[in-house]
Each structure stands twice: as structure tokens, then as C-alpha cells.
Amino acid sequence: MSISKWTLPLRGAHNPSSRAEGTTPGSFANAANVGGPLSFSSPDTPGMPAPSAKTAWDFLPDGWSRDATTGFAIAPAGFEPITQLEHARLGIVTPEMERVAAREAHLTPEQVRDEVAAGRMIIPANRTHLSYALDAMAIGRATKTKINANLGASPVSSGTDEEVEKMRWSVRWGADTVMDLSTGGDLDACREAIIRASSVPIGTVPIYSMIIGRKIEELTLDVILATLEHQARQGVDYFTIHAGVRRAHLPFVQKRLIGIVSRGGSLLAKWMLVHGKENPMYEHFEAICDVMRRHDVSFSLGDGLRPGGLSDASDAAQLAELETLGELTERAWRKGVQVMVEGPGHVPFDQIEFNMKLQRTLCHGAPFYVLGPLVTDVFPGYDHITSCIGATAAAYHGASMLCYVTPKEHVGLPKKDDVKQGCIAYKIAAHAADVALGIPGARDWDDALTKARAALNWEQHFALAFDGEYARALHDEDLDVDTDFCAMCGHDWCSVRISKEIVEFASGKAEGFEREKVIKSAALTEEQKRVLEQRGVLSPNEIHKLASKTRKAVDAEVGKGLCHSDFVEPEIAQRIQKDRLVQIRAKDEATAED
């Protein structure tokens, strides 16, 4: 039989598996181009804006030049670098760059330095936070996709201790950075506690603190600079500054279905309308840069006019602000300050690539940090799902960091489990994009789990799973012995078991993934017990038996234990499985009649 002429249109030779395993080794993404504008990027569909020809190198501070031989910058005599950007421009590899390279196995310290110097990567690492527990990381398209978790006390819910615990919980479930968006309680104490306890970068929206105890109309430059200085001294790693909302943009908002959904954007819009003046964050941007440079606080240039519904996506207000954010990116680079740019929250799926690539053009490749985006508005309570769909597309088409959305988005303040659900949804989006982009080694984790699954090695299967406890609980709900099939198919219909038995197949035979014939899983942990209680499938008595886990308790002599065909003779197992099916159907029919 001839091989089909239909082969994948792979681009470049990069492979998301470091061992080049499997039968589909490549990616549709562009070939890896670290050091250029197309580092791990999707191919442009027709009509997409082209990458900018400029980088941060085109926006050096006054008095700086570039060495024609080395390509690195020459600063004025006596200049002392402070920010990661300034060190990178001078050709210096900092300890933080070394640490980033250690965490991003596909990058060298020199590549990290060069991406930072070009403005395509930032290392948000406040000098004060580095003196605590901060573990340096990077955000940029040359790195793996990062996710951010939002938390913070509100005027009606939560407090400092709960938010610190939520921060630790979000890091446990994969958050690469955390934003403290507190608007209630003791904001200062909450921020301080979170920073001191956090190993990941912390971001804030300083305007929230600027209006505590005063009306927005009373905001002055002195208050702005004093607040920024105070938070920078505390150790905040990046500030969301809504400097891109201009007076001239406000008329574009008038016909929106949902107006301005950014808290910072709406506050500054009101300030401008009351005073009849330009946004003070825009007018005094250089003074803000000076404060941030002293502590190496990175900009997260806020999207104050982001769309809050599909009807307002990619409108004149949003795109006019994005153009201004490109201008502000250039101004920040001239001051030696690191920059990432925030992006839209609600965007129809078909518009996501355009939004990502327009930012790449206007902001010269500065990292894009997007909220979602949500691809539909009609699933409140499930917006972690509607948004992670858009987030996957956003990361594939150029976003460097994804701001998570939880099930509580639009309806309330997230609690611990909401934080977990949001983080997991966004780890899925980020990892899926990394595999699709062909980042070297991105698929190794998937390949390892595939080998464990093929070998029917349940212990390794759950050890490799992102949330192994949850997966194990679901498995034990049906079968509490690690047998050579799962409850989906049973023994006779298990395709994985059959493939493993075919001598000519490699499936299930990977070295190091062999399994014992039968392994009885351990007793349920408290978390697994809670999962099964919430699901409500098993009775309290059945869950208690799984939590106790003695041979007698799990009915290994009769009933549940005997349905495993590698535990007893296949004929007996088949009969027991059929009897079980009859019992289940009878129970279902009785329930339906009731």
C-alpha cells in the first residue's frame, strides 16, 4: 500500500519533542527564529499586519550609541545600569538572565539577554522583591507561554490572610505571575504580605490605591508619583498604567454596548471629563518612567479601552488606544524601562489573530499580555472555558502571557477553587500553544504520559498528570485496582491493551514504563475524597471504603475486586461485568420511573 500524498505542511525543522519521537514530529508554526521578530510564531494568514521593522534598539536614550563591532550599546560616561533592559543593552548577562535560561531549557543566557535588549522579552524583577523570595522568570514570545492569576480583597469580600493563601494556591496550580487587584480592606498590608510571601512576580494597578480616601477628581501628579514610589519600594514587579486612554478616544466609546469595562480606564475617563484635560498618566509618562526605573519595575501598559463584549471588539476606541500604547512603548524604552502591553478581553474567535499581529506591529514586538480573550459572552459561570479557547489562539498567534479568567468572572470574587479552575484552564491553553508553536521540548511531557497510558501504567499516568490527584479520584470512582484496562471499555474492548499485546507494535513497550500485572491503588487522600463527595456518584459508604482501603473494604474478595479480569479468570470477570451492567440499568430505570 502506498503512503498517502496528503502530508502535513510542516514549516521548518523544529520539533516540540526533544527526542523526535512519534509519527508527526513537526509543527505548522514558523521555524524557530530566536533573535528575530518571528520567534515561535504562527504563519500569517493573508491580510495580517507585518512585524515591525523596529525594536527597542531603535529607541535608545539620548546620549547612547551602538558599538559597530559588538552591536552592544555605549552609555554616557559614569552611567550605572539598573534595569534588566539597560544591562542587556550593554551586553551584560545578569544573574536573573542566567536563571531564566535555566528555567527555559531551549534558550541560552545570551539569547535571553538579546531578547531583553530587543524589547521582545521582559524579566519583571523588582530589586526589592529579589531580596525576598522572587525566582526570576521571563515573559516573551521566545519563552514558554506564561499565565497570570488575579486576586485581591474587595470591599465586600475577603481579606489579607485569604489573599496570601490564594496567591500560594494560584502558584501551586501553575500561575507564573500574580496580580494583586485589591480594592477593599488594608490594601497596603495586603500588598506587602503578598510580595514578601511570593516567589513569582507581583503586579498591581496603582490607581486603585491612589483614590483610597479621595475622589478620582482629586487625583494629582504628586499623588500619582508618591503612590508609585511607595509600591515600588514595597517590591511590586510590574505596574498596570492606563496611560493609553486619551481624551480624543472618549467619543469612540459613546456607542459601545458596554462602555468602558476597565476600572482604571473608567476612572481616568471620568477625571479627563471633569477637568477637561489630557490623561495625567499620559502627560507625565516620563516622570512615571523615572520612578519605575529606579526600582526596575516593568510596565504593563493597560488596555483601558479594551472591549467588554463581542459587539465592541476591535473598534475605533480599542485600536486608537493600541496605537498610543505603541507610542508609550517607545517612550518607556528611551527611559530604559521594560515594557509589556495589555490586550483585549472579549474578541470573536476570527478576530484574534489580527489583534495579536496588529500589536506586534504597533508595539514593535513588545510582549503582549492578554485577558482571555473570551470568544462568546453567553456562558457566565463557565467563562474560564470560553476564555481559554480564545487564550489558546492568542498564544499561538503571538501573546506571551495569558491573564486567567475564573468561573466567577462577571459574577463575583473568585474563591480558592475558582482560582484553581482558572489556573488549570489557562495552563491547558498555554501548554497547547507551546506545543503548536514547536518550542523545543514542549511535547516531552505529553509523550511521557502517552507512554505511561500505552503501557497501562496507572501510577506513572497519574504522576505525570497536571492534577494527578483529581485524575486518580475519577479513576477510583469506577475501578480501585490498577488493571490492564479502564472502566470506559472493560477488558475485552480495551484497544490500548490489545495494541500493547501486538508484538509488532511499539505501543506500550517503552523502557521504564512497564507495569505490574495488578496494583491496588492507595487509599483516597482527603482531596480525592472531597472530589468524589462533590461528584455525588458514590455513596458515603463507598467513599469511606475507598478512603479506608483494606482488602475487605474494597470488596476484593467479592464484587468490585472480581470485575478486574487480570485479578481473576477472564470468564468470571466477564460474567461479573455483565451482572453489574444489568444492575446499573435496573437502578437507572427505577430512578427514571420515580
TrEMBL record:
Gene Ontology MF annotations: 4 iron, 4 sulfur cluster binding; phosphomethylpyrimidine synthase activity; zinc ion binding
Enzyme Commission code: 4.1.99.17
Record keyword Transferase present: no
Taxonomy, superkingdom: Bacteria
Chain residue ranges for the region called Disordered: 1-50
Catalytic activity, as annotated: 5-amino-1-(5-phospho-beta-D-ribosyl)imidazole + S-adenosyl-L-methionine = 4-amino-2-methyl-5-(phosphooxymethyl)pyrimidine + CO + 5'-deoxyadenosine + formate + L-methionine + 3 H(+)
GO terms under biological process: thiamine biosynthetic process; thiamine diphosphate biosynthetic process
Gene Ontology cellular component list: cytosol
Cofactor note: Binds 1 [4Fe-4S] cluster per subunit. The cluster is coordinated with 3 cysteines and an exchangeable S-adenosyl-L-methionine.
A Pfam family annotated for this UniProt entry: ThiC_Rad_SAM
Cofactor(s) the protein requires to work: [4Fe-4S] cluster
Enzyme class: lyase
Similarity comment text for this entry: Belongs to the ThiC family.
Protein's name according to its UniProt entry: Phosphomethylpyrimidine synthase
